[in-house]
């Protein structure tokens, strides 16, 4: 079984506001450093994204990937890889928990398997950087009040 990497952050906003930013894929290029394009390919009967194409540029690593999203209640979303040029597999999730009045603890879990050989230690460090950047960007975006 692949090892996963996770990290948490507290955001000064209600869970619904945090999930609103997470679910707004069209705006990802505005606040995530690596996502250059995001296109919703398929939605569920509630209008939430089921499949999203992301064009990523993380410096040395560039990728065009499609992810399938599963929404569990109002406070959890997970995703799995449908196709990618660089990755063999990718599984991730955001889990939101109320953390007192007007704040939310967000936990990001990520497991990545790349097609090119990479030492486990280096892969986990890269996963940690991806997670920490994503959480910091999410926190900044939500707390700035931008929609």
Automatic annotation (TrEMBL):
CDD domains: SRPBCC_2. InterPro entries: Polyketide_cyclase/dehydratase, START-like_dom_sf. It holds the Pfam family Polyketide_cyc2. Coiled coil: none annotated. This is Cyclase. It comes from Streptomyces alanosinicus.
């Amino acid at each position: 079984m692949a090892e996963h990497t996770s990290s948490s952050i507290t955001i000064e906003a209600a869970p619904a506001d945090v999930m609103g930013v997470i679910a707004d894929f069209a705006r990802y290029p505005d606040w995530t450093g690596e996502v250059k394009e995001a296109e919703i390919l398929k939605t569920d009967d509630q209008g939430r994204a089921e499949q999203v194409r992301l064009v990523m540029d993380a410096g040395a690593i560039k990728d065009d990937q499609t992810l399938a999203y599963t929404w569990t209640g109002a406070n959890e979303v997970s995703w799995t890889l449908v196709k990618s040029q660089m990755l063999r597999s990718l599984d991730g999730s955001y889990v939101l928990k109320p953390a007192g009045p007007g704040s939310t603890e967000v936990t990001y879990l990520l497991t990545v398997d790349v097609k090119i050989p990479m030492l486990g230690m280096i892969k986990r460090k890269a996963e940690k950087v991806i997670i920490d950047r994503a959480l910091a960007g999410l926190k900044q975006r939500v707390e700035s009040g931008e929609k």
